[in-house]
Design brief:
This protein has about 150 residues and is mostly helical. The protein has seven helices and no strands.
């Protein structure tokens, strides 16, 4: 008897960058051959150029199948022997939270690119920045400590 797999966990494993790139979602689904091929290709051959599109495609397919209650089509990424558990509210919440986190990161990156004025530094240097640091106020003017 095969154990039922959760789409929420599969999405989580495929959408986290390092886990998805190395194919841990395929290992969870029981596609051991695909897992080893993706792991080998990521580590030794092509790195993220090979694995990133596969992880993104896998995440999108699981996302769509979860929210639209569609079965995942068996392909080289989703073996036929996977027995999916019924979609639960927890699966949808986990996937929704992950999507919101990624949207937030994308918005913050875009906001960072909006400050394109090279004359405005993001961090302003301050000459007296360390003057109020606690380590400097403990031993004022005693000089460096000697062993």
């Amino acid at each position: 008897m095969t154990q039922e797999k959760s789409r929420g966990i599969a999405f989580f494993l495929s959408s986290i960058p390092v886990l998805g790139w190395f194919g841990w979602d395929k290992l969870y689904m029981g596609a051991y051959t695909i897992f080893f091929i993706q792991l080998f290709a990521t580590l030794l051959v092509m790195g993220c150029l090979f694995s990133f599109p596969i992880a993104v495609f896998t995440s999108i397919m699981i996302l769509l199948s979860t929210y639209f209650d569609a079965p995942l089509l068996p392909s080289f990424l989703f073996p036929q022997k996977v027995t999916w558990s019924p979609v639960t509210k927890g699966d949808r919440v986990l996937i929704g939270v992950m999507v919101l986190i990624y949207l937030y990161i994308a918005v913050m990156i875009m906001i960072g690119f909006l400050n394109t004025d090279p004359q405005t530094p993001l961090i302003t240097p301050n000459a007296n920045q360390n003057a109020n640091h606690p380590l400097y106020t403990i031993l004022p003017s005693q000089g460096p400590l000697r062993p």
